[in-house]
Amino acid sequence: MADEDDKRNSRVPAVSGAPPKLGRRDLLMGLSTVPALGLFGYAWNRQQQYRRGREAAAAATPAAAAGLQEINVALLGAGAQGQVLMEAMLRIPGLRFRAVCDIWTEYNLRRVVNTLKRFKQEPNGYADYREMLDKEKELDAVIVATPDFWHARHATDALKAGKHVYCEKEMSNTLEGARSMVLAQRETGKLLQIGHQRRSNPRYIHCYQKLLGEAKLLGRIVTVNGQWNRAVAPDLGAPDRYAIPEATLKQYGFKDMHQFRNWRWYKGLGGGPIVDLGSHQIDIYNWFLGAPPSGVMASGGLLYYDPKTHEWHDTVMVMYDYDTPVGPAKAYYQTQTTNGSQGYYESFMGDQGTLLISESELNYAGQLYRDPNAPAWDEWIQKGYVSAPKEQEAKEQTGSGAIADVRESVAPDQHTVPVSLRDPYHQPHLQNFFDTIRGKATLNCPAEIGYESAVSVLKVNEAIEAKSRLSFKPEDFKV
Amino acid sequence: MMQATTFERAPMIAITALRVLVGWHFLYEGLAKLTAPSWTAAGYLKQAKGPLAESFRWLATRPDMLATADLMTMWGLTIVGACLILGLFTRLASLAGIGFILLFYLAAPPLIGYFYAIPSEGSYLIVNKNLVEAAALVVILLTGSGRFAGLDRIVHGLISRRPRLAAA
To answer: Is the peptide bond between A170 and the residue preceding it cis, with omega within 30 degrees of 0?
Structure first.
């Protein structure tokens, strides 16, 4: 019986009549796993050092080590896009977050300020951007990531307060707004970078400078095709207890909390998917073709969502005419709201080859096709401009049993763009902005280029209403 | 009448090692999330499958509750991890750990006919490493390894010197 008791209680330290002492052995055994925590701390520390080292190396312009001029920044607009920019900026050395401003003080503002504090930044939080501009005298730059219809006011006021400005695209929801930003930039002489971040993406720069510019791998580009297919999604919501007071919402131009959260869908506030998504890619059309468009036709409509809460077109198909320096070209673009299959990309077809590129390298590796009749690319492969061609699999191995008709052209060689971006998409564009502030670069997307894109894209919604082809005059793109 | 504790030495050392390893994993999972700029469980929750999928997805759509769930996960994993390594409040930490892991398991159970977009590093049928880790915590919970080697031994030693426990 006593034996059984012993077994049953063997897990419990014994307590006999006299209280047991805490012996030396108990202390040793008690502390025996503490060194494991020390070991963890050591491993953690090493790992953090390694991570920081890699980030610094990735972000580093050669001069980025010591003696870097610190730039004081403020984030104006701390919503989803503001947070994307903040994360990218936290990887860029030499930045000091002085302030964050958002009217959703109880949620966005608090969240971002708290996150920044974890990264040893001490930003002041503001609900009113004017108060921020008045009080934060040391600011060098303001990052604007507010809804489109606020961009013009926020950017021009910040420029006039003597700050450099990085403003998210679309530059503005109106041409007057975009124009006022260009003028304010010229008047103040401060920098204004528009957030078409592909302009600083090393993959796109490589394509533009090396593949299209120097090697002219595509020959003459005649047609362009691009898309952003996005899955349907429920409206963004907000918990009642975090709701912004109605008076504040009205003051900032929102009807209610739903409109505040889903402003992209409302006329007068945003521009719908063609502006949110298409603007990035149509900007690349202009860039790679070397000219803004000369005409546009478009069809669009609200095919899926409830028109009460979604005023802009959820589906848009656009056709642009271009008069490029080397001849006419046509470009097609679509954004639709069904599902996300085939994602987003831009495809340029020339008389010698095709480039299909996407910001998302995971989904599109940057395929390059050389037409069998085009001059060989060996020189460019040797220079490392394009990858060596993928060996074409024999037809028998495809398993489809399909047979090429004798009149079909031979399948072209398949190459890829050998440059990768290993950082968040927006980091190089922000880096370019800060490098320019330090006088070590020039802006990749200054106000004038942002304006050209805005003119090209905002016209699409007009063309849908007009149901006919609208022309651009060259002076439309100038301020 | 209780007798002096007798721990089987070799098994208890093994279980203590197990406890330290599980704790290490928890601690790193927690700290990695805490130090990521804005980690959130939203992505994981949105992909939830299985009997509780609806609830998990609902949670992902509520920013306020999601923020609380994120905080609880980040700090919970960290604290449980540190306690397991140190052998401090081992039973409570084991229970909390089991709770966390079962939630993770239930959000993405490898049941027959379920396919996950995010590839896992192994192949699982009903049992995955989450479940194995939960089972390991059950062993740790039931064997009281903190009182064999861990701060619990000291804590318990201090408490049990009090007369009211001595009278038990």
So the answer is: yes
Name the CA dihedral angle for A322, A326, A327, A328, rounded to a multiple of 10 degrees. -20
Using CB atoms, pick whichever of A10, A27, A33 lies closest to residue B5: A10
DSSP state of A323: E
CATH number for the domain spanning A317: value is 3.30.360.10
Question: What is the separation, in whole angstroms, between the first and last Cα of chain B?
Answer: 9
Residue A440 domain-assigned (yes or no): no
Separation between Cα atoms, residue A312 and residue B63, nearest integer Å = 26
- Report yes or no on A37 lying in a domain: no
A123 and A252 belong to one structural domain: no
Domain count, chain B: 1
Across the interface, whether the CB atoms of B86 and A34 are under 8 A apart is answered: yes
Task: Tell me, yes or no, whether A360 lies in a domain.
Answer: yes
Are A80 and A189 within one domain?
A: yes
Q: Which residues of B touch A42 (CB under 8 A)?
A: none
Q: Out of A13, A48, A87, whose CB is closest to B147?
A: A13
Residue A21 inside a domain? The answer is no
* A297 & A368 share domain: yes
The string of pLDDT tens digits covering residues A456-469 is 999 999 999 999 99
Is any Cβ of chain A less than 8 angstroms from the Cβ of B9? no
Query: Measured between CB atoms, which of B37, B62, B86 is closest to A115?
Result: B37
User: What digits encode the pLDDT tens for the residues A2-60?
Assistant: 444 444 444 444 444 445 568 888 899 999 999 999 999 999 999 888 888 876 665 55
Of A55, A31, A33, A51, nearest to A43 (Cα)? A51
A15 contacts B144? CB cut-off 8 A: no
Sheet holding A315-324, edge to edge: A413-416, A367-370, A353-357, A344-350, A221-231, A327-338, A315-324, A293-301, A470-471
Which residues constitute the domain of residue A316?
202-392+409-421+447-477
Domain that holds residue B19: 9-166
Same domain, A163 and A221: no
Asked if the Cβ–Cβ distance from B153 to A83 is below 8 Å, we say no
- Examine residue B80 and state whether it is found in any structural domain, yes or no: yes
Which of B7, B64, B143, B145 best probes binding to A when mutated, by most A CB atoms within 10 angstroms? B64
Q: Are A108 and A82 in contact (CB under 8 A)?
A: yes
Domain count for chain A = 2
Contact flag A9-B3 (C-beta cutoff 8 Å): yes
Kindly report, residue by residue over A95-117, the tens digit of the pLDDT: 999 999 999 999 999 999 999 99
- Give the pLDDT score at A57: 67
Give the whole-angstrom CA distance, residue B102 versus residue B108.
10
Interface pTM, i.e. ipTM = 0.82
Q: Are A56 and A30 a contacting pair, CB within 8 Å?
A: no
Residue A14: phi and psi, rounded to 5, are -70, 145
Residue A108 and residue A192 share a domain: yes
Cα distance between residue A451 and residue A182, in whole Å? 8
Give the residue from chain B lying closest to A8, CA to CA. B2
Contact status, residue A340 vs residue A283, Cβ threshold 8 Å = no
Same domain, A124 and A220: no
Residue type (1 letter), A401: G
- Nearest CB among B7, B31, B152 relative to A44 is that of B31
Residue A193 sits in a domain of what CATH number?
Answer: 3.40.50.720
A387 and A472 inside one domain: yes
Sequential DSSP letters for A199-249: GG-HHHHHIIIIIIIIS-TT-SEEEEEEEEEEE--PPP---GGGPPPHHHH
Segment A77-100 shows an average pLDDT of 95
